Description:
Chain A has helices at 5-24, 27-41, 47-52, 55-68, 96-109, 113-117, 121-144, 168-171; strands spanning 152-153, 158-159. Chain A is mostly helical. Chain A has a two-stranded antiparallel sheet with strand order 1-2. In chain A, helix 1 (5-24) packs antiparallel against helix 2 and helix 5 crosses helix 7 (121-144). Chain B is globular, with a radius of gyration of 13 Å. Chain B has helices at 8-18, 30-44, 46-56, 61-68, 72-86, 89-99. In chain B, 32% of the residues are buried. Chain B is mainly alpha-helical. Helix content of chain B is 65%, strand content 0%. Chain B has 6 helices and no strands. In chain B, helix 1 packs across helix 6 (89-99). Classes of the chains: A mainly alpha (206), B mainly alpha (109). The A-B interface holds A 18-19, 22, 25, 27-28, 30-31, 34, 50-56, 58-59, 62-63, 66 and B 4-13, 16, 87-88, 91, 95, 98-101.
Amino acid sequence: MRARLGGYLALQRAQRRIDEAVDRDETKSITDGLYEYLCLALPALKRVTFDDAPWFEVMAAYMAVLGLNTIPDRKKYAILAGKGKEKMVPWDYPERAEILWIHTLANAYHWSKADIEALWPEEAIGYLQEIYADEQYDREFVYSLSEVAYPYDKATKKSRYQPLERPGWMVRILKGQNRRTRFTAPVPESLRPSGHIIFPKVESDD
Amino acid sequence: MTEKAMNIREAVEAMKILAPRMPGVAKANALSFVRGLLRSMAAKEPMDALRLLSLMRHETVEATAVSMKEAGTGGFLAALFDGLKLNRVADLIEAAAVLGLAPKGWDDA
Lengths: 206, 109
């Protein structure tokens, strides 16, 4: 049976152990990772059975679980289209990726851990994408209010709005999609500032 | 000795031996690939071939070397070929690609 988010994250963790073992070229760790992965789908699987089984049966089971738990239409989620690994932080630990999913969703929607783990993985990805997009819009709004968003151009002798850079997945145009243009709400003439804009002087604390 | 298929630990070791020799091989030509592979391994890297056979026979490299001493090159190649028939080389390569041990699986013929 296909795993919900809780099971999916556990499978991802086991998969990461397999990938790391492959990178290190450690046969024992690869087989340990495979056993951990299969145990999540088949909790009754004994280590002796796993060790004695013909390799093609083990691989067939692994590929079946892997196929079953692949996110359908993965390409339609822009956030998954990114390449490369996430930035490491000093407070990183092996399970942090899974905790981060729960933390981000709980923080935004105030759902319980059990509720979040019962989501379908693709559902959770959709929510996460919206959360990250909202956070970016908030950052852009705050940034647009600050002086640094309007650097002075000596050539034109004017300050010009420099938009905050968006993460790659928010600007990337996926194949087959229409070109996305940045939405700008028209501001009525009467509401636009007129005359010279004088920025308030910031006084230093000391 | 090769009646029983390899277990997963042995198979992963076998995948590591086979994977670097794979790029650009079409699945339709699997048989000729195996023949070429065995010939080139026996000629250039006999230790790899011996290790592969020992994995398929579930024994140490030394034990395989002793038992193959009498068999000669023909017998050695036949044993390897039998082993790779039971532990299908096409599936081994595909599994290596899935695990990330090989950069890619078979090319489409």
